[in-house]
Amino acid sequence: MAMTFDEFGRPFIILREQEQKTRLRGLDAQKANIAAGKAVARILRTSLGPKGMDKMLQSPDGEVTITNDGATILEQMDVDNQIAKLMVELSRSQDYEIGDGTTGVVVMAGALLEHAQKLLERGIHPIRIAEGYEMASRVAVDHLERISHKFEFSATNVESLIQTCMTTLSSKIVNRCKRSLAEIAVKAVLAVADLERKDVNLDLIKVEGKVGGKLEDTELIYGIVVDKDMSHPQMPKHIEDAKIAILTCPFEPPKPKAKHKVDIDTVEKFQTLREQEQKYFDDMVQKCKKVAEDVGATLVICQWGFDDEANHLLMHRDLPAVRWVGGVELELIAIATVSNDICVFCVRWENCAKISRVDTREAGQGNKMMIEETKRSLHDALCVARNLIRNNSIVYGGGSAEISCSIAVDAAADKYPGVEQYAIRAFADALDAVPMALAENSGLQPIETLSAVKSQQIKENNSGCGIDCNDVGTNDMREQNVFETLIGKQQQILLSTQVVKMILKIDDVISPSEF
Ligand code: ADP
After folding, report:
1. Less Cβ crowding at N or C end of the chain, within 10 Å?
2. So which residues are the signal peptide here (predicted)?
3. In this structure, is residue 10 part of a structural domain?
């Protein structure tokens, strides 16, 4: 610590914080960062593909999650390292923008880092590597566009959408029911999609889980599920042509608070007070029942609770009510009923009838962990269906698109005379990491399998040849119906390149030292 004076003579203190910090510079910084990034990618590598392993994660409060969804694994892992956090962000960005491919994007970034390290050791400047990677990613993204196919679908012909959703689900724990879950996802997305504007608002789809039952019981419900009972057991459980009043305020008689100090010394006074309270509440009920001249509510849905007395009075005034309904559900009910003021509403989900274009689904399995994983898998499938509605181009999966890009990028490298050529070649090698991981996770010899498939792609001029993970007998992904969305794959390449470039450009790491 030192005291000094500025140009106006004012004293200030300089804390020699630097002494308490560790600092890594230059190649050491890059190597440490690459090692951290690679460590994260190594964890996810074994989870990639239909034969990928699951991870079991325990939160500090003892809750256990079993998943193979890259974004969820990274989210729940308590990472301290800042570079590792960048990888977590990478997976999250892929999840946010595309919803699928969260494991693949991290595996790709890990491979790019690994190859960058080799180039750094050979003395190539990190900026040249970053530039080479950028050029290569553009070649790969353009190549993906070239090898993509348009998937034609209509409201009645949705088989192609279902097949693509099934590819996503095939690598999840729920793959036993992938066909039915994919159908549910596609129907749900189509129900809320605006096909003309090619837009889907996934907020209108709610995935609900309920303990008990089997995965096969999962069903699509056109309506809104409010898993609540009527506030009074004697209120009617089925209301046709209901007119719903949605209340976001508490709904109960006003209560005299002790701090207002009401002196009640006779029974009459008490009775008057009680009657006044009742009258006040009755007025509230009447207001609900006669919102306008002819439109009166026949059902109240309240965001807050109401006490026993209010409940009793509602029952007597023939105004059925549901209390403690969540804000999201209220919003959905409001959206669903705004265009048609008459709707059928029933509280128990078994009897829920069609209201409008808001869907809710029930994913059941005896186990809470399984329900959570089912919800995550359905989310991925919903995102894939949404992406296809936005852009109906697909590429083949099973690593075939990566292999094809690798061949294209490798060929493009020769055109660049500069040092970037090495980085472009390294990018082509990194693209092989995805098919190699798929092969390794399926118990195949990674290098042999990859080289066989690569030469087959060149020989047959077929960019659909990939890794036969499920031992079907053919590695033509077109025959196996393994599809991925073009935008998802392009995004994987773009995002992983951006993160790796960012990591390579860091040459000074200052962090607080441990005492
Ligand atoms: P991500 O979280 O990145 O989607 P997944 O574990 O879902 O990771 O694995 C996706 C990868 O598995 C993709 O490369 C996809 O093409 C591949 N894949 C999915 N199903 C099959 C299959 N039946 N055969 C071969 N590869 C498949």
Report:
1. C
2. none
3. no
Both 31 and 146 in one domain: the answer is yes
Task: Indicate the burial class of 189 (C-beta count within 10 angstroms; 0-12, 13-18, 19 or more).
Answer: buried
Q: What is the DSSP letter of 442?
A: T
Q: Is the same domain home to 163 and 245?
A: no
Ligand 1 probe mutation, 53, 169, 438, most atoms within 8 A of CB? 438
Beta pairing class for 205-211 and 321-322: unpaired
Q: Are residues 245 and 273 in the same domain?
A: yes
Describe the strand order of the beta sheet including 359-365 as a list of residue ranges. 205-211, 359-365, 219-222
41 and 80 fall within a common domain = yes
Backbone angles phi, psi at 151, to 5 degrees: -105, 110
Residues 405 and 496 in one domain: yes
**pTM confidence score:** 0.79
SS3 304: coil
* DSSP code of residue 351: G
Same domain? 343 vs 462: no
Tokens matching residue 134: 């950028």
As a whole number of angstroms, the distance between CA 206 and CA 210 comes to: 13
- For position 1, what pLDDT does the model report? 61
* Residue 340 is assigned to a structural domain of this protein: yes
Cβ-based neighbours of 333, under 8 Å, separated by 6 or more: 224, 226, 244, 246, 301, 325, 345, 355
- Name which of 200, 326, 187 is nearest 334 in CA terms: 326
User: Which residues have C-beta atoms less than 6 Å from ligand 1?
Assistant: 47-50, 52, 68, 70, 100-104, 167, 170-171, 397-399, 434, 438, 467, 469-470, 480, 482, 484
Assigned domain for 57 exists: yes
**Is there a domain that residue 1 lies in?**
no
Tens of pLDDT, residue by residue over 272-323, are: 888 888 888 888 888 777 764 556 778 888 888 888 878 888 888 888 899 8
Q: If you measure from the C-alpha of residue 48 to the centroid of ligand 1, how many angstroms do you get, rounded to a whole number?
A: 6
Expressed as residue numbers, the domain containing 92 is 19-150+395-512
Assembly ipTM: 0.97
Nearest atom in ligand 1 to the alpha carbon of residue 466 is: 25
In order of 252, 427, 439, 442, the CA distances from 311 in angstroms are: 8, 67, 62, 60
Ligand 1 atom at minimal distance to the Cα of residue 399: 14
Rounded to an integer, what distance in angstroms lies between the CA atom of residue 63 and that of residue 67? 13
- The residue assigned the tokens 């196919």 is 149
**Residue 122 in contact with residue 423, Cβ under 8 Å?**
no
Rounded (10°) angle between helices 420-431 and 433-441: 20
Low-confidence ranges of the chain (pLDDT < 50): 292, 340-366, 515
